[in-house]
User: What shape does this take?
Amino acid sequence: MDTIDDTLRDSVFKEKKSLFEKKIDNSKLSFYQTSIWEISLYNIFCQIFSENLKNSEKIQKFLENYALNIDAEEVFLFNKKTSLFISSYTNKEINDENRIEKICFSLKRIANKLKHTENRFKEMTIHNRNNTIHINEFNEFCYIVIILPNNTKLELAKLNAEIGRKIFEEEINNIN
Assistant: This one.
């Protein structure tokens, strides 16, 4: 349901529900208009996804080394197709337990807005009073979110993302 335009969700839900009810006679069925974006479901899907990655320990170590080498405060990897969280590294204490879900939801919304246009989401940089957030299409499977101190130059962040992409491809294959 999360990939369906907000204005169409109710009608699509009712249509799909009706199709199931016609195919299954005399069964007591319950239908819910939900998606993996509900926090508890999202967390379970992310956990299953991460646990089944071939190179999850290598990915985690890569993100830690990468963040330390570029002085990033945090680095996140998300699957491009599903926007599910893959892995992250942070070197600071975060008090928001839903932070990853919020970042993921933002990525998903951006990608969904652009998927019906000729534009594809490639990269974005956001400056706020606390830091610089650089989001990049990291490879064919992943988006990377890099959170840097505000004193970091944007061009340096972009160059670091490109260098990191090459190292990632050399060290870690088949993240899909």
